[in-house]
Amino acid sequence: MRQRAYRRYGSRRKRRNFRAWALLSIALVLALTVLGLILFLPKEEGRFGSELKKLEAPQNAEFIPFSAGAVYIDPESQSLYYLNRNGEAKWGFSGTVSGMKTAVSSSRMAVYYSSKLQVIGNNGSLIYSKVFDYPIQDLKLSDGVCAFLQYQGTAKNVVVVNAAGEQLDTLTEQTGQELLDFGVFGSAGVWQITVDTGSVKPVYRFFTYRYENNKLITVSYTTSDQLIYYPVFYKDSISLIGTSDVISIDYTGKFLRRVRCNGYELARRDTQYTNAVLLMKPVGQARNETLCIDGDFSSFVLSEQEPILETVLTDRYYYVFTQHHLYTYAVGKMTRKRYTLPETISRALPGLEKQVVLIGENGRYLLALD
To answer: Is the model's pTM score more than 0.70?
Structure first.
């Protein structure tokens, strides 16, 4: 009798010990989980300091990032003003007109209307002023050359002028080809994309020209697999952005590799703004992610719950702008911080000198990037 009672008591004690051990194990796992979250998750909340400046300008002014600061055009006073990184007005001029367009490089700004072109330095000095035979339809600017599109009858011609405004070349649209786009790269390079109009299957052609001394055709690449619509230039290669693939070629036009990008398009069309990583955004849907393709064509995605307005990359950070927040990711470590913007913004305009102009509902801001 005593032996059976002892056995029942021993079984109850074992069950109590097992329960205690199980509860202790669960508590230990929970404690380690919380500790891991505290130690290893990034601190997400950040605060803006002196890097964010509110800009004083009329509410209806048009802003263009330029030379570490920003230019704005006031339609009421018909004037243009340059604000430096601190938001201070440094120079300006009057006489702007409705319909006037602009283009910028790292140290120059072009303003053009109809057939008149003026190029201004970042200190406000007039570098040259020219009037051409035909109206300027579109214009791309680097520090060494300016390329602009003119229509002469039914033909599209790209005129190239040097840093002093002297004409170097006219790239004439050839019979059986249509010019799709053009631009500048480096200090004195010009590129074109054309399509053959006479072929049964479209043939797309990409050309680059350099004008440091004499005109040189440096790259020629042809494909009929897909529409190629924009190039991105790197130190040793060029990425041609297509409707289904990104194609990498070298500066002789030799094919290097390709990566699938179906469903994405280039996030920003500006060959003066280049990084080691290609940034692409989804097509035709809520754009809450950015596809990042690095130099060896491996890729990853930055995703947010809010729609993404703009993604910018510097040597140290990815900057992801939404209407209400800025998210930063440290290059390499990918630690993430979230900054609350001073107000709801509708646009984020990146510049060439690590700056972004934020267009808010009530104000305009200049953010210096790291």
So the answer is: yes
